[in-house]
Structure formats: structure tokens, C-alpha cells
Amino acid sequence: MNNGTTYTLVISCPDQRGIVAAVSSFIAAHQGSIVEADYHTDRELNRFFMRQEILAESLSFTNQDEFRQKFKETAKKFKMEWKITSSAQKKRTVVLVSQEDHCLADLLYRWRAEEFDFDIVAVISNHETTKSFVEWHNIPFHYIPMSKENKGEAFGQIEALFKKYQGDVMVLARFMQIVPADLCERLYGRIINIHHSFLPSFVGGKPYHQAYERGVKLIGATCHYATAVLDEGPIIEQDVIRVDHSHSIPDMIRLGKDVEKMVLARGLRYHVEDRVIIHQNKTIVFK
Amino acid sequence: MNNGTTYTLVISCPDQRGIVAAVSSFIAAHQGSIVEADYHTDRELNRFFMRQEILAESLSFTNQDEFRQKFKETAKKFKMEWKITSSAQKKRTVVLVSQEDHCLADLLYRWRAEEFDFDIVAVISNHETTKSFVEWHNIPFHYIPMSKENKGEAFGQIEALFKKYQGDVMVLARFMQIVPADLCERLYGRIINIHHSFLPSFVGGKPYHQAYERGVKLIGATCHYATAVLDEGPIIEQDVIRVDHSHSIPDMIRLGKDVEKMVLARGLRYHVEDRVIIHQNKTIVFK
Amino acid sequence: MNNGTTYTLVISCPDQRGIVAAVSSFIAAHQGSIVEADYHTDRELNRFFMRQEILAESLSFTNQDEFRQKFKETAKKFKMEWKITSSAQKKRTVVLVSQEDHCLADLLYRWRAEEFDFDIVAVISNHETTKSFVEWHNIPFHYIPMSKENKGEAFGQIEALFKKYQGDVMVLARFMQIVPADLCERLYGRIINIHHSFLPSFVGGKPYHQAYERGVKLIGATCHYATAVLDEGPIIEQDVIRVDHSHSIPDMIRLGKDVEKMVLARGLRYHVEDRVIIHQNKTIVFK
Amino acid sequence: MNNGTTYTLVISCPDQRGIVAAVSSFIAAHQGSIVEADYHTDRELNRFFMRQEILAESLSFTNQDEFRQKFKETAKKFKMEWKITSSAQKKRTVVLVSQEDHCLADLLYRWRAEEFDFDIVAVISNHETTKSFVEWHNIPFHYIPMSKENKGEAFGQIEALFKKYQGDVMVLARFMQIVPADLCERLYGRIINIHHSFLPSFVGGKPYHQAYERGVKLIGATCHYATAVLDEGPIIEQDVIRVDHSHSIPDMIRLGKDVEKMVLARGLRYHVEDRVIIHQNKTIVFK
């Protein structure tokens, strides 16, 4: 944790010798004081991943753009996919929710307690139940009713709102509607879902019922990026809780809520702090 | 934990009022001192399950048979499926293993340390690698080579040995051969397998490879009864361990071993202490 | 989980044969349908503990009082300490909070989501920061400023409010003021505290600082009954979360909040569902 | 995990800009292929810590000594405390054990299964109970009886044996004798102890009894470096397991063994892979 603004440099590139040397020399040459640094090499894919968090005021750049401009040469040399973000620009988060509002309430609390850097700029729901609670936080609430007939149109409105609010990330906080494949593709890597099972077990809408039927001894939750194929996107975070024969389905639902909240909050934090790199269908998460 | 011999009465029957009253009155009438008592009612199935562990010397019976004889009337009245076992008769355990011997070594240690009441009466393997270690424990070791051609015959030998040793329970301690469906059926509820994934995820022979491919953030192990359908039997115990992008498949295999050992040992303990009741494809485990 | 009203019978008495038989015969004789039953014998203390949750409508009693009246004889025979409560009478909960409001927010959410049976009847704080949030829930908020000088008087007001609201349980939800010993004694077994360490480690006001200094690899939280000796009351529930060298004290505080919330919520649920029996300085918790 | 020999460079030095740049440029200049890299800056102490694991065959050095020789200049410039080790030189481990042999058996298994790179070169005990099991592994066993009278002499023999076997690390695998302060000091950072509690709770010889008395809901184990002050050395690893009122002290001892084994094995692995840096009374552990 650090009080000043930080710039985060995230890199993915083919592995070769000298990358760390080049990047750290570049940072040192510009007086950068590194707050946090992480690396990973995927030997199978021969690919290198890096995250550097640097104290903004330590750098000799006047702003992010100069950083980007100057870094381009190094990036090109190593064929990097890269980005530079600033902690001063909090990720603008649009939360979608249906009737189960435990994840929404949890995120709203973390947001107003400033547990980590993100902004909830709007909440969208196909039910009006959470309206007054959201509005107490002075956050705009949009009610978009959904039926089989209007689904396409409704998601059109959602996408329009996301654009209007200049959303950086869309959180499906137990939004029990399947996001259309084309929207998932347009917002690839920007839609985060919480699924109420330990994926890949129990895909679909009734995972606790499936868990109960199968008689598993742990139930879980999975935070992942939404993709065109339901519940198959890259996993960011997972966790589980112990159950036994004495737990009914309502018990599992109750216990599972706590896991869902924690897993979504952790996954979202990793995302908005630019700790996650998606590669193929997996994630590197620099905690 | 208790130093004297205990009798364990395990009951499964249709639920109705008065079962606990009848059973506990019966025990009290015969001076039984209860060491541990557990109950469960499955409301959906309207079925009642009970486990009573009673200090043998406290009872007014001369032996188990008298207990059984006297209890028959109560059992009949409530349409009970029931059994009475004695802690003095340790479950005779036959362990099957292939080359990965971490679970075998773990069970052998627990057996000689007398961590819980069970006897390893024989070890059978399709490899000779564990022979000398097993024999150091003065436990008979049987080498039964296996190929596609001789599989039926080999399992015939295994079943014959299990009978010869008067086995109570067969443990597949990472025995990487699929037990024939008919043998699973004949020994239903007596074959315990450890599967190296958090079932129902990653059925089959290479679960860590599948876990790696899917990019899950936890890997696990499952102890279950072997049934005719591979990896689908009633689950006794499960656990997981955290992994991340930095873990290769060999890392997962190494980390997973510790989970497998613990989960199998716990599952086997529950079984040999008559803490497990199978009902349909699930278990009640009275811990 | 059960939809109808239940009566819960909680018993603590010297161990002897026939207690279960007597109690379950009594219940059966009055047509009681048992929802949940738990027992424990402490062999060292030779003491027996029991919790029976019974479907109210199944019983042949017109009300709780008749149940109590009829049960007296059995209770007397076995020298029982006992109580009968009804799930229809939700425990009236008064929450005390200072500035850190994560536990308060968590409890308020669980209350309005009706996750378990309890009522928050008032919130008291020595700061005004949580006032509007509490009042949004239509729960009375009382601001009682505290200083070294007025501490005795302030706690007098708190006790008066607790009486006025007919409080059943007082929750110290990160209330950073030490409750006077005499108040702890008058409300023995009715004040629940959440301490932000894994007790008995790190007693006092700065546990995360102590944990950081000691270099522990797990931090935790403890829900316990407040007693005259600070942080030494009977423990109801505890949990931990992993940390390492990369975590600063603010990181630990942030991570610890999630543990505190969960541990307090679980501990409170056990208490209000009459699952906890205090005996000497320990608890029996029938989960 | 990596099949070739690796060199591990471990550094601790005052923090300043350019350290990573200097080190990674040095490695790149000598063709080093980095297998694993970790950094940590302690902002409070203004100190920097680094671990680099490099594929030996990738480097342009003929051997470790050349690496050391060439690196000296960089090390001097940044006032580094540093070392270079080779995975080809497995840490020579001397295990001390009393009667409880679960940790010993666990380590012996991991050693013969080659779970990680270390060698058990000798086992020393004040009891003869583990002799034949150790010798089955073709590992020398030394029986050194201990009494109040001969304690000094006995530890003299232990130290002499440790030297004779050119021990790198001494593991107290539930060795229930207190190592003299002066020996702890002479072998500072080379004696690893497993303590059967979650330190700093329950220092001393009977932690499970203390845990039982206090009524904690989790019990644990701590792997730490032995120092002159009992159970107060730098902590390497800790873990816990859930218990409740139903667990007797023998139950806790049984459950705790599994935690002790795992925690010691993990802690030892971190140590022998040069993942641990001690600084003041804490550790940085690069997992």
C-alpha cells in the first residue's frame, strides 16, 4: 500500500534474455522508484509477463503520456503488448445485478470505505429492489426490465449506458441473465462475472442444486472474465467453503454468498489494480 | 477418543417420531454409556440416520451377538437398516497401489503409529517398486503385473486375495487401473478410491493436466467409494490447495500429493470407524 | 433450515445414563418432530450438553410455557440447567461501533437480507460517522461521545439504552472502548466482541501492528464473550487468513476486515440460534 | 520446477534506485536465463531483498566461483549481503527427533521421493525407537541418550556430528529438548524447528493442552529458526486446522500432527531452496 499516485506498467511479450534488464534500466534511467515488481515466464508458451508499479512522482516524466512515448522504443524491440495506467484514474465500474444483492452490497461498502481504488459509476438491474439502497450512495441506478422478448434490446441499452458512463469494467454481481456472445466479445477482458460454483464444476444457473445432488463436501465460487461460452472464460480467483450432509440447499446458498462476495471483491481488486494479464484462456495474477 | 472397546450402532430408516427415544431408551435400559451420538434427518427423502458409539463394558450384554439379538425387535419396528460393529475388530484393509506411493507410505505410517483403528493386511501392486518398503512393515506384498491382455485375470487374482485376507475394505491408493464394474458392484461400499481432483471436475487419468489447462486457482482431491461409473461414486471427503500461474504441472502434482494423502487418510478413518452411511449416491459422514 | 417456528431446548447437566432417553421420550410423548439434535459429553468434567430444535407446530403444547411447565420434572430429575426458546422471538440485538464500520455494515446487510433470525433494534456509537447509514435502515442510532472523563457515565447510558430496547445481546462490532468489568459481569454471556487477532495472540488495541512485528504468516480474528478480563472471555469462533512479508500493516488491516466480518457474523448466528453453551471459560458450539 | 542445475543469487541491501537494473543487466550480459525472480522492498526499513534463480548452463561462467568473482563489483557498489548457491549441491540435512516420529517419517518419505532438493545425511535421537526405520533408508542413525545431567555433553556430541556430516541445516523434527542458547547462536539461521502451536500463542512443551484449556477453535503449527529465546525465532511458515468442543487433547494431538508435517516440510523446502531471507526477527519467503 502506498499513498502517492503510482503508474503501473504491464507487459506481455515473447520470452528472451534481457527484458528485465532493459525495462529496469529504463525505469532507473528515469529515476523511477519501484513500489512493486512481478514477473512470470511461461516456459511452455515461451512467453514473458511483467508488472511494475512505480511511484509517479519519482519519475522524471511530466505525465503518463511522456512515459508511454519514451517507452515505445523498448516495447517495440521486445515485441511487447503493454500498457501504462495511473492509480489516479480509478477504474470506472458499472455493476449489473438481479435480485440477489449480497455482492452488490459488498462492493458498495468496499467502494465507500475506499478499500481499493475503483469507482462505481452506475448500477443497472432488471429489478427495482436495490434502487433505494444504491441511490443512498448517490450512485445512478438504471432499471432495465428483461424478458425473453426484449433481451436483445435490453442488452443494447446496457451497452449504451456502459459507453455513456465511460465504463472501464462491467461487473456481473450475480446478474442472472446471460450476456450475449457478441457483447462479451466487444468487451473482452472487461466483463467480470461471479459464478456461484467452483468451476469447471456445475456450470449454469443452479450450481448449488447440482452440488447438493452430487454430494460434494466443499462448495465454491469463481470470478472470471465473461466470454462467448458460458462460464468458460479465464478464471481470476476462486475459493471454497466446507459443507456436509447436514446442509440443505438453502444452507449452501447462504454459506456460498460469503464465498461469492469475497471472491468477487478479490478478483475485481486484482483487475482494477492491473494485476491480471489474460493469456489465451488463463490468467496471470500478480498479487 | 476412548481407551476401552466400543460398539458402534449405525442405523438408516424411514423418518418418524420416536426413533431416538426408542433407541436411547433401549441403550439406557441395558446400562449403555454413550461415547458419541449423531443423528441426521434428510427431510427431502424423509429418512433418518443415526450413529451411536457405546462403551462395550458399560452394556449389560455378554457380547455383540446378544446386543444384536436384543436390538432386532426395535430395528424391525422402525424398518431399520442397521449394523453393530466393535472397535476391537479392526477393519482389515487391503491397499492397492501403482507407482505413485505417497498415499501408501502415508497409510503405512498411520497404521504403525496407530493413529486410528485399522489393519493393513496386504498390499497389492502392479509394480514391484514398493515391495521392500511394505515388507519392512511385515505386511505381505503381492505383485500382480497388469497389461491390457491380462486385466480380467489380474483383477480375478486381486479379488481372490481380498477374500483370502478376509478384507473388509479395499483402498485404491493411487492405483492407476480401472476396477471392473462387476467387481465394484460386488464390493459396493467397500472399495475406497482417492481421485486427484476436486470432483466432479476433471474426471479421468490426468486431472492435474486438465486443471493446468483450465487455469483453476485451487486444485483438490476426492476420496469416494468406487462404483461402476468411473469417478462418480459417493464422495466421502474432499479438500483443496491454492495454486496460481507460477505453478507448472509438476508443481501441481507435488502440491496435490499432500492433499491426496490427507483426504484419503481422513476418508478411510471415517469409513473404518463406521462414520459413513451411503444413501443413494451421497454419504452422511458423522465426524 | 426450516420454515416453521421451532422451539430450541438447551441443556447442561451432570452426565449420567438415561438423559437422552428421558428427553427424547418426553419429546416423542408430546409428538415433537425434531429438526436438529446435538449432544456432547465432556468426559473430563463429567458433564452433558444437549441442544434439541423441535418443530413448534408438531408439539402437543399450546405454547412455550406449557412446554416449560411440563419439562420441569425431567429437568429436576437430572439437575439440568436448561432453557427453551422460540425462533419466533428473534434476539434483540444492540450493536456498538466506533469508526471502523465494516462489521456494522456487514451485520446490517445480513439483517435486512434475513440471513438468520435476529433483529438489530439499535446502534450506539461514540462517533456520528455511521448515523445516516444506520438510519437509512430505519434503525435508531444513538450517539454517545466518549472521553476519559465521561466513560463511566457513557457506559451507564449504554446500559440504560440496552435495557430500554430490551436487548438480548450486545455486539461490540469493533467498538474500540473497553467495557467496564461490572457491566461485563451483569451482562455475562450476552456481550459478544470481535477481536482482530487470533487469540490468545495479540491481546489489546493494536493486534495487526503486533502481528506485523512478530512476522506471523497468518492473521486472524476471534469472536468471544466479553468478560471482566480483556480479550480472555470464552471463544465462540475464530478464523485466519494468509499473509506474507509483502503485506504492510494497512494491508493486514484490509485483509483482516474480511475475516472479522465473517467470524463475527458466524459467532453471532451461533449465539442467536442458541447453539452456544458457555461452560467455565469455554464454549460448546452446536453447528 | 526445472530439470537443469540452477544457480540462486540471494541479495539483501539498502534500498536505492537501480539495483534491479544493475543485477538484471549483469545477468543478461552473461547470457543468464532467469527461471524465477522475486523482489521485495521493506519501506519501513528501507531495505531491498532479491532472489534470482538462473539456469546454470545458460550462463557464460565456467562455474559458481567465476559467477561470484564477477558479481563482487556489483555487490560492493550496492553494499549487498549476498550469496550464490547451486541446486546441484543439495543441502545436507541432519534431523533430530525424540519419540514422536511423524515429522521424521514425513521428511524421509519426501527425501526418497525426491520431492525437493535436499539430502538427509544423518538422524540423531535421544531414543532408539526410530533406529530401524531410519536405517532401512541407509541413513546413519545416532542414539544420544539425554538426561538433565548430560545435556551439555549430549549437545556437544550433536554439534560434533553436525560438523562431521558437514551439515548445512539441522532440523528439530519434534525434538523435545531445548537447544542451548550458544549452539543456537553458533548455528544461527541453520536450525529449523517445528513448534506444535500457532505462535506466538502457546509457547513451551504442552501447546495442545494449553489450546484445549483456552478453548481455541483452530490449532496450528509453526516452522521457525531456533534462536536463544525459546519459540521466538523468525517464523518461516505456519498453518492451522479447525477444532471444536468435541475434540479431546489426544484428538488435537492427532489432528495437529498433519499440520506439523506439512508446515515443517514447506518451511524446510523454502529454506533449502534458498527462498528465505532472515532480516531482524522476521523472514522474507519468496515462494
Oligomer: homotetramer
Q: Count the domains of chain A.
A: 2
**Biggest β-sheet strands, sense, barrel of chain A:** 7 strands, mixed
For the largest interface, the chains and their residue counts are: A-B, 31 and 31 residues
How much of the residues of chain A is beta strand, in percent?
Answer: 25-35%
The largest sheet of chain A has its strands arranged as 7-6-5-8-9-10-11
CATH superfamily of the largest domain in chain A: Formyl transferase, N-terminal domain
Distance between the termini of chain A: 12 Å
Q: Just give the CATH class of the largest domain in chain A.
A: Alpha Beta
Low-confidence stretches of chain A: none
Q: Using only CA atoms, what is the Rg of chain A?
A: 20 Å
Percentage of residues in helical conformation of chain A: 25-40%
Anisotropy-based shape of chain A:
globular
CATH topology heading of the largest domain in chain A: Rossmann fold
Indicate the CATH architecture of the largest domain in chain A: 3-Layer(aba) Sandwich
Question: If you average the pLDDT of chain A, what whole number results?
Answer: 96
The topology string of helices and strands of chain A comes to EHEEHEEHEHEHEHEHEEHEE
